[in-house]
Design brief:
This protein is α+β, with helices and mostly antiparallel strands and 459 residues long. Among the domains are: 47-235, Neurotransmitter-gated ion-channel ligand-binding domain (Acetylcholine Binding Protein, Chain: A, Distorted Sandwich), CATH 2.70.170.10; 239-315 and 433-450, Methane Monooxygenase Hydroxylase, Chain G, domain 1. Helices cover 44% and strands 23% of the residues. The chain has helices at 2-26, 28-38, 237-254, 265-288, 298-348, 369-373, 379-385, 388-450; strands spanning 54-69, 74-86, 99-101, 114-115, 119-124, 132-136, 141-153, 165-174, 182-186, 193-194, 204-218, 221-234. The strands form 2 sheets. Strands 1, 2, 3, 5, 6, 7, 9 and 10 form an 8-stranded mixed sheet that branches. Strands 4-8-12-11 form a 4-stranded antiparallel sheet, with no helix packed on it. A hairpin with a 4-residue loop joins strand 1 (54-69) and strand 2. Keywords: Cell membrane, Chloride, Chloride channel, Disulfide bond, Glycoprotein, Ion channel, Ion transport, Ligand-gated ion channel, Membrane, Postsynaptic cell membrane, Receptor, Signal, Synapse, Transmembrane, Transmembrane helix, Transport. Residues 243-447 form the Neurotransmitter-gated ion-channel transmembrane domain. It is a multi-pass membrane protein.
């Protein structure tokens, strides 16, 4: 029937068309390779081989900066690096649009041998596929992008730590091509860097940044490179609460002993030793997280000075106790010598009821009949009793004088003890305002010297 023959013809035509499409698709990949070969393309030779150097422009988006380590002096950075160059061998006509190709095609094309010279470790991300981008433009321009994570070296100057600012760099350089073959440069200067304003760091704040086009010289020749330089300003709030405030409180605590009685030896010694040992522990904990460097850091200056203040408070009480003991010993010796000298004078020069030494003021003690009778050898008592009539006439008068001298002697003894205590407590009294004043002057000079007012280290 006519309609059946028409259906069979249409089915045959459809099968022929499908076979042709499948054959064309199966020959697509070989066709691309044959196109490169037919144009004389060799991925092992750079564009314009034997001619002027290839100009490679760069731009970069910073994804993150983290794990900034003062101990290892490095940081970890993740970037999207984009490289632009032109290869006339890949120019095509018939379209004004660029072609986005599979990143794995980079294995079949010439690409710059870029590496990071100051990287300790680096790798390309491969999840879920290799994070690469290739875009081909009609004039032969190529955009080659990749996602890189690198642990880069950063030489840090920790003299002002933790109120410091660090200048770190990230460089890109050709590994094998010299300046006669390839030249690197940033595509638009500082505008080639993206994502800096959106970065969030834990202890740092990104400051000014700059890009540099340069050249590195090695034994094998000169190589073109580019660098991204940026400032990291450390935020000191963590260290204020972790180190500075505890140190200040320990120093202030050591001053409490100046208001404690000097005779309370256990209280003042225990307080002084406790503050010194606690300060030592705080210093050890702070230094455990720092690199072993040969110069003094700002935090070392502060902690050591606080330790010296707490130690000086302990030594101050040692001085108080020593001076008190020396004063008491001198007073006891002087008192004993005066009593011995007066007793000797009394035995030699007894007139009436009194022993009077006009030349020696130390011998100012008056004795009654009872004192004379209690002499060791008894001779003085016998002399006194032999003159009974004279004794009776003067007894009432002499007893009044003797009582007054006794009161005067008691007052003098008490005043001498008060003088010793006043001399000792004067050290504590001067320390009560001397220590805080010195510590305040130290803090003012310290923070004025180490802070950077241009960057605002507290913000």
């Amino acid at each position: 029937m006519p309609w059946k023959s028409s259906v069979r013809w249409r089915e045959s035509a459809g099968l022929i068309l499908l076979f042709g499409v499948l054959q064309t698709c199966s020959q697509g990949a070989p066709t691309l390779e044959s196109l490169l070969v037919s144009r004389g393309y060799d991925r092992f030779l750079r564009p314009s081989f034997g001619g002027p150097p290839v100009q490679v422009d760069m731009s970069m988006t910073i994804s993150s900066i983290d794990q900034i380590s003062e101990v290892n002096m490095d940081y970890t950075i993740t970037v999207f690096l984009r490289q632009y160059w032109r290869d006339e061998r890949l120019a095509f006509a018939g379209s004004n649009h660029s072609l986005s190709l599979d990143g794995r095609l980079a294995e079949k094309l010439w690409v710059p041998d870029t590496f990071i010279p100051n990287a300790k470790e680096s790798f390309l991300h491969k999840v879920t596929v290799d994070n690469k981008l290739i875009r081909l433009f009609p004039d032969g321009g190529i955009l080659y992008g990749m996602r890189i994570t690198a642990k880069a070296e950063c030489n840090m100057d920790l003299e002002k730590y933790p109120m410091d600012s660090q200048n770190c760099t990230l460089g890109f350089e050709s590994y094998g091509y010299k300046t006669e073959d390839i030249r690197f440069r940033w595509k638009a200067g500082n505008d080639s860097i993206y994502g800096v304003e959106s970065l969030q760091l834990q202890q740092f704040k990104i400051g000014a940044y700059n890009v540099i086009n340069g050249m590195a010289t090695y034994e094998s020749g000169d190589y073109s490179n580019v660098k991204f330089c940026f400032l990291l300003h450390r935020q000191a709030f963590y260290f204020i609460f972790q180190t500075y405030i505890p140190s200040i409180l320990l120093v202030v605590l050591s001053w409490v002993g100046f208001w404690i009685n000097a005779e309370a030896v256990p209280a003042r010694v225990a307080l002084g030793i406790t503050t010194v040992l606690t300060m030592t522990t705080l210093i050890g904990g702070a230094r455990a997280t720092m690199p072993k460097i040969s110069y003094i850091k700002a935090i070392d200056v502060y902690l050591i000075t606080c330790f010296l203040f707490t130690f000086a408070a302990l030594v101050e009480y040692a001085a108080v106790n020593f001076r008190s003991s020396v004063k008491k010993m001198k007073e006891a010796k002087r008192k004993l010598a005066a009593e011995k000298k007066c007793r000797n004078k009394m035995k030699a020069n007894v007139t009436g009821l009194h022993c009077v030494d006009e030349k020696d003021n130390n011998c100012d003690k008056s004795h009654t009949i009872l004192d004379i009778d209690m002499a060791d050898d008894g001779t003085v008592g016998q002399a006194a009793r032999s003159d009974g009539q004279k004794l009776r006439r003067t007894t009432s008068k002499k007893i009044g004088v003797t009582f007054a001298n006794g009161v005067r002697h008691l007052v003098r003894s008490v005043s001498q003890v008060q003088m010793v205590r006043a001399d000792v407590t004067s050290i504590d009294r001067y320390s009560r305002w001397g220590f805080p004043l010195c510590f305040l002057l130290f803090n003012l000079s310290y923070f004025l010297h180490y802070t950077e007012p241009w960057h605002g280290w507290l913000t």
